[in-house]
Amino acid sequence: MSPEPKPWCLYLIECRNGAWYAGITNDIERRYAMHASGRGAKFTRAHPPLRLLGTRTYPDRSAAAKAEHAIRKLPKAKKLAFLSDHPTGM
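Given the sequence above, the corresponding structure tokens read:
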């Protein structure tokens, strides 16, 4: 039997320049480590991460990608509320 697949999550990272980066993954520890080591996204290579601000779990990649698209449209002041108030699975 293969292990049950990990749920997908939306995450928000604060970068050293003050910017916030949003992404999705099904392994947050591995993905954050990639960003921190300079092997993550192009944006976080140029603007290294300072800390993980939060995550929100979704049942599949599609739902997580839709949430990522939605959070990127929001002003910075509303992004943390999106993570805590938005219903799982959109």
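The first strand starts at residue 8 and ends at 15. Try to locate this feature in the token string yourself.
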